[in-house]
Amino acid sequence: MTAPRYHITGIGNAIVDVLARTGDDFLSRHDMRKGSMTLIDSVQAEAIYGAMPPGIEASGGSVANSCAVAAMLGAEVAFFGKTADDQLGAVFRHDMHVLGIHYPTRPAVGRDATARCLILITPDGQRTMNTDLGAAVSFGIDDLDSGIIAESAVLYLEGYLFDPPAAQAAFWSAAKVARSSGRQVAISLSDAFCVDRHRGNFQALVEQYADIVVANEAEICSLFEQNDFASAAEIAARFARIAVLTRGADGSVILADGKCYEIAAAPTNVVDTTGAGDAYAAGFLTAYTHGAPLQDCGALASKTAALAISSIGARPARAALVALAPTRQAKDNAPARLHPNRTV
Amino acid sequence: MTAPRYHITGIGNAIVDVLARTGDDFLSRHDMRKGSMTLIDSVQAEAIYGAMPPGIEASGGSVANSCAVAAMLGAEVAFFGKTADDQLGAVFRHDMHVLGIHYPTRPAVGRDATARCLILITPDGQRTMNTDLGAAVSFGIDDLDSGIIAESAVLYLEGYLFDPPAAQAAFWSAAKVARSSGRQVAISLSDAFCVDRHRGNFQALVEQYADIVVANEAEICSLFEQNDFASAAEIAARFARIAVLTRGADGSVILADGKCYEIAAAPTNVVDTTGAGDAYAAGFLTAYTHGAPLQDCGALASKTAALAISSIGARPARAALVALAPTRQAKDNAPARLHPNRTV
Lengths: 344, 344
Description:
Largest sheet of chain A: 8 strands, mixed
CATH architecture of chain A: 3-Layer(aba) Sandwich
Strand order of the largest sheet of chain A: 5-1-8-9-10-11-12-13
CATH topology of chain A: UDP-N-acetylmuramoyl-L-alanine:D-glutamate ligase
Number of strands of chain A: 13
Oligomer: homodimer
């Protein structure tokens, strides 16, 4: 097996976020479930957008956020995800390319616009998301490049991609390529309701391919239909080699090889929780693919998540992330010289 | 003369900002003059954008920002400015409409995209702007609605609109309508280099129509070709009934009726100076059109500017602005019952 060219290759929805602050009353008026992600169509999107306060637009997407943050932390990253050939798509592609991320997916041709996620940030810092997947639903197996997956230490799959049907097939294919190339597969469960919609397929993919499963409390409980975190975590540790489980302000736990690493949440000022889990995963995977011990992977993950929470939007400022990077000169290391941690 | 329906009607460029943090070295590598606004074409815009770090997108435009902030402060506002019929244009229009701003300008038909301003924010909080006017250049006299101007206490004109040729004619026409309807005309000088490009026309418009001129130190010095602020301010007070002159961290002065009101800058944490002057003008004009004494207009202006400076982007959060609003229930007052201050 040759040394990998990329630390992380992500597959996820290519989304532009529209973030606006609002009161709790806005959520109740529009029947939104606080903290969740709801899929909406373009008609619903126009209705919600028309009622939303002025916002800011910023590139988003769960695994795309993780990839962007990992790249700012010094990882070599590739990403697959479908935009449309429109202005918001150009914004998304720009924001990946200028971070040095290899992002070869061609924009979709057709009527659908680039996916938008309408995010309402309530005064408690919670984010409530409404996603119009648009062109992202056309992502499929033809968008994969097996060569890139084979050259990546970790393949990172976004649970939200269980929603668009063509993407599921791509997941299985990508995971198979990674496995047969001696690489590792990480899966984010993304959202408890998304897990609920696709539990069987999620379980099967995790069982067959996941070296690493990344989830929060609600998601892991949903996946294994458990009421308490401890039981769900125990099952997770049997399904995947490493279970990376976040618990919000209560920190996180990493389960591997019969051990349990408890990680405290890094102290921060809660401004906007958008992207907290994505940033956590970025910190974890960056440290992990640079060969750090699991306790240190968790520590970097916590600090990275804290940065995401302390400002509006999913992706923290580059300057703050660079200060956290596992090796400040990470970008100068030829990735081929890095030895992904296979034996934690 | 009937009571006005709007406190402020603005005419300005309809622009979406792309804001990114960068080092001073980015400016020098791209031959940018820190703190200024440079007009660029779409080819230059692509080159700069391609080199810029990931950013956020947010509605901008100088007078558009003032209008948005004034609306959040409780003023009744109308706005004229040209977008294209594209995604960024839809963002700009959304952000005006949801603030209750009457914004009737139809998007341009044609190849040009909605104007973009590429803004580099350096570690000192200064913003350096590069504007591709795109569809905004097609704004012209046909886009005006005399009825709205006649029903507005103050017409607020953006100096930057001296650059696109068709807009100059619209300015003269709009100012004439305002004057003949017994309304007031305010002019922002926008940028010292813009004043330099169009000094003769600026002077003529200010002399003939300006009740209020809004400028910073460099702009007013450029307009009257003076080396020192005191001399420029003295001339300004002869040209316009009210001269509203900002001096950054040194606060501002308002000259009217032979009096000089000195206003201290409100204390703030400098994060991003984008829109500081626009927010200042919004605070001033909102208080002014609600009948406040000039000293109080300056005080609200300073506080509003401080809010703009303390976060990324030109337009402060609504919640913070609402707390400053001259009358917290301003939106509940029928504008017809407000008596714009004619006799300060």
